[in-house]
Amino acid sequence: MDFIVNEATFSLPCRSFIIDYSVSQKRKLAVVKEFTIRLLYSIREISPDQIAEYFGFSTEEMQVMLVALQEERLIEWEDGNVKLTTYANERFEQVDGKSVPRFFEVTDQIDTVTFDLFTFKLLIGTPSGSISPNNMEILLPSEAMGNLTEKAKSAFDKNFYIFLEKVKKVNIYLENTELYKINQVFNKRDSLVPIKIQYVINSTSPNQPTIQYADKWMDEWDDDKSLYAAVSAQKDFVSTSGCDLGITFGEYLRISRDPSSARFFRSENFDFSAAMDTYSQKNGVYDLETKMLIGNLYTPKNKDVIQSLIDYKFGENNVVSTKGAIWCIDPEDKIWGRGPELEVFMSSIESRFDEREKPEKTILVSQVDCPQSAFSKKERYGITGANFQGVNKMPGNSQCEILLIPNVLVACIFHFTIDDYYPLTLPIGYVSTNEDRIAQVQQDLTIFFNNPALTNAYFERKNVKEENLVLSSKLMKLLDK
Predict the structure, then answer these.
(1) Residue 470, strand partner residues
(2) Closest to 246 (Cα-Cα) out of 262, 269, 271
């Protein structure tokens, strides 16, 4: 069974260009004109009277036709006779042993086209992702921004038939359209295009995740896998030092009281395949109020699992009575929340809060060691509208993730590191609406946040009174029973 353990959106720098170009299309002459041309091609030269006699034209009809052929640069006069121009002669091709005229019509067109600035490929699809400040950036090579109009000109020439078929929706097999010339190229605007990536694991090889595009048209578009390679090699993180799994997972179990994951930890190792097989066999069900989780909370499947548990406990689409949510996560050394999925998930959870309780928005708790570190995280995840609380040490440790909605739900996850696939983690844990499990985690978090040595105010503005800090004015009130 495949599991989507994470989703992330990369922002791909692109530029749009206005292309002024000319196309040539094969066209058919009127029957009489074509036969006149064929006659002249066969006998080289003829008088107007002979043409009129051959076709049975009146003098007036003959003159009208000859004027039209001359305007199209197909005939010329020589000593009172008519013959084909060099242009007309060159339009004849050999088809099945016969000479057949092929004429083209040249027209000017102007279109806006967009190329990505990493591979300079023509953008032909509409990505399903969206632009967000917490998207991951695709860094451009140093030479990417040089000679852009010339690159656009070359790329448009190379991709012209793809442009006709995919963008202009022209049937290139029925319409014989060719690029005649590119007249001018103008810069129009720069933009970011969201490229949504899914990280997938399988129970047969859980330590070998694969990366796939969420939009299937991207596979054809990135046929040489150049962009894929750049995404796979993403290193926009600073790795933390390795920790003893027995110690870190034990710390996780003590604060999360995870009822499902502990049974898969054997001989100082976690049996990922067994955990995934158990999930597959039971569809993640531990009991009526508790389910296993594989992957980050905001993945589509886990989002549905969490909503279904709330529906089962409180009624479908009913609001829930709570003061807000606390989400403890240290995203520093992992790909976490790097895309609009995080904001969508938080909105879906907060939409269930009963407004009569005047609940707080979600409070994101994260480890920071200075105001600059806090500023960077707030800038990245501030679009969610969350409040932020700094800590000197994460509850449990930096690999633990806890989402607590008092009186409603608790979700705990342990982020296993994957050798050779840093900074991707393999999140495994549980979610429950069981009152006792919620109360136990809430009690541990209350003890944690009551210890002033463990918290800090780096997320706060300067000179904020203590009673107005997020910790005292929001978080501790949320934890009060």
Answers:
(1) none
(2) 269
Can the peptide bond before residue 423 be classed as cis, meaning omega within 30 degrees of 0?
yes
For 254, other C-beta atoms within 10 Å of its C-beta total 12
Burial of 314 (C-beta count, 10 Å sphere; 0-12/13-18/19+):
middle
Return the residue matching tokens 């295009």. 193
Residue 235 is predicted with a pLDDT of: 53
C-alpha closest to that of 138 among 211, 213, 229, 219: 229
Q: What is the dihedral of CA 268, 272, 275, 276, to 10 degrees?
A: 180
Q: What is the structure's pLDDT at 206?
A: 87
> How many C-beta atoms lie closer than 10 Å to residue 321's C-beta?
13
Average pLDDT over residues 111-137: 88
What single-letter DSSP state applies at residue 47?
-
pLDDT at res. 122: 94
Asked if residues 28 and 38 have their Cβ atoms less than 8 Å apart, the reply is no
Dihedral sign (CA 256, 260, 263, 269): negative
Largest CA distance in the chain: 111
- The pLDDT of residue 234 is 64
Residue 189: enclosing H or E segment and its boundaries? strand 177-202
Nearest to 3 by CA among 269, 205, 196: 205
Is the four-CA dihedral 381, 386, 387, 390 of positive or negative sign?
negative
- Report how far residue 295's alpha carbon sits from residue 2's, in angstroms, rounded to the nearest whole number: 11
